[in-house]
Amino acid sequence: MPDLRSIQTEVDACYLYSKLAENEEDPQVAGIFREMSEIEKGHAEAFLKKLNLPGTNMPSPSFRARTLNRIGKLFGYDYVLGILMDTEKSLSNSILAVKKKTQMTVTGTETNHVKVLRNIIEHSNVSGSTIARFETRHRSVGGNALRAAVLGGNDGLVSNFSLVMGVAGATSGQEGVLLAGLAGLLAGALSMALGEWISVKSSQELYENQMEIEMEELQTSPENEMKELELIYKAKGIPEAQAKEMAAEILKNPEHAHELLVKEELGINAEELKGSAFEAALYSFFLFAIGAIIPVFPFMFLTGTNAILLSAGASAVGLFIIGAAITLFTGRSIWFSGFRQVVFGLAAAAITFGIGKLIGVSVAG
């Protein structure tokens, strides 16, 4: 049975799809977004009817949806598309999970919206520039970059807040807290940056190695690679004779054949390998540092109880903002998510403060 929250979700999706349509340069893709918007509007109206509510009860787009639109205006609507894609996947998975749990029939329509968005990328009539943009920016930027920004700041804030409170507990907020906080900031940010660099670099090297092997296979055994291409096309529902013709035609251009095999057989998007490991590391460093500086800042000007209280207050505000930002992806209440983040963050800091206090008393005794 739908509820008001379900209606709000449909209204938000309708609003965001309409904004994507308004800001899409490719007319065909803009038309698809407009159709998606109308479908979501239809869902919302159907839900209202099922609840015996008049059309005047249709809610306005939520603060979350309007915030996502502002992000689209500032950073580009590929970010919004990425988050919508993630939302559609989550909704599809939830519907499938409920149907399996209640032993309802899975019809295949549960993932229709995800399929439509994917078809925007894969449909042959969409312009090449649009395909390239979606395959690179949507996959590598989209919702993932925003999520990484929020979680990176959260890691920096929570870990350094806990560290600062632990040292403050041991020293009553006197000497050493600022030094420990700055050391924690630098060490944590460098660790995150190095981890990100290694992750990106190792993935690139692995994929490049797999691509080289695929090229060697194509050069030494083209007949087997042609069979693989045939199988790929047959798996997509193309008749055997036509699949053979298409594979033979593609094999005439080894570079194109290699690109297709890498994408379809290995699941590697060559465009993603062009990302800079150094840029990813730098991005990670600054995201962590932004969060980590919040609990340290008060100790640059104050000491003792005043510094501890101000650090805890500033960190609580930061935690609430991060919790609220997480709702961009989850769709939960800002107040619920924000206060939950504050409670968990303050609990972690309180534990380390208590441990620090015990250690300080022990050392002093």
Radius of gyration: 26 Å
Count up the helices: 14
What are the low-pLDDT stretches, counting only 5+ consecutive residues below 50? Answer: 106-110, 123-143
Structural class assignment: mainly alpha
Give the count of structural domains.
3
**What is the annotated CATH architecture of the largest domain?**
Up-down Bundle
CATH class of the largest domain: Mainly Alpha
Tell me the number of strands: 0
Helix content: over 70%
The biggest sheet, with number of strands, parallel, antiparallel or mixed sense and barrel status, is:
none
Q: Tell me the series of helices and strands, N- to C-terminal.
A: HHHHHHHHHHHHHH
What gap, in angstroms, lies between the N and C termini?
A: 64 Å
CATH topology of the largest domain: Ferritin
- Which of globular, elongated, flat, extended, rod-shaped describes the shape? flat
Could you provide a short overview of the structure?
With 365 residues, the protein is mostly helical.
Write the layout of secondary structure elements.
Layout (H helix, E strand, L loop, with lengths): L3 H19 L4 H24 L12 H13 L2 H24 L10 H11 L5 H13 L1 H30 L5 H44 L1 H14 L4 H12 L2 H11 L12 H20 L7 H27 L3 H31 L1
Helix pairs in contact: 1-2, 1-3, 4-5, 4-6, 4-7, 6-7, 7-8, 7-12, 7-13, 7-14, 8-9, 8-11, 8-12, 9-10, 9-11, 12-13, 13-14
